[in-house]
Amino acid sequence: MERVQHMTRSAIRRASNIEVNPQTKRNLQDLIINFSLILICLLLIYIIVLLM
């Protein structure tokens, strides 16, 4: 989980270093958020499967 957070942070840092127009930046942020939500859902499914 720490590795995922580190990867997300470094991706956000890289994205903020690059000069892009606001639309592209918003799309990138949405992509990162969606990716994080998918990871969280997969983690929850994994935990539920383990508990059964």
How far apart are the termini?
22 Å
Shape: elongated
Q: What is the mean predicted local confidence, pLDDT?
A: 87
Radius of gyration in whole Å, from Cα?
A: 14 Å
- Largest beta-sheet characterization: none
Strand content: under 5%
| Low-confidence runs | none
Q: What's the tally of helices?
A: 2
Chain oligomer state: single chain
Number of domains: 1
What is the H-and-E element order? HH
The secondary-structure class comes to mainly alpha
> What is the number of strand segments?
0
> Which bin fits the share of residues in helices?
over 70%
Short note summarizing the structure:
88% of the residues lie in helices and 0% in strands.
What does this structure look like?
With 52 residues, the protein is an all-alpha fold. The protein has one domain. 88% of the residues lie in helices and 0% in strands. The protein contains two helices and no strands. Helix 1 (2-17) runs antiparallel to helix 2 (22-51). The mean pLDDT is 87. One of its GO terms (cellular component) is sarcoplasmic reticulum membrane. Belongs to the phospholamban family. Its main location: endoplasmic reticulum. It is found in: Endoplasmic reticulum membrane; Mitochondrion membrane; Sarcoplasmic reticulum membrane.
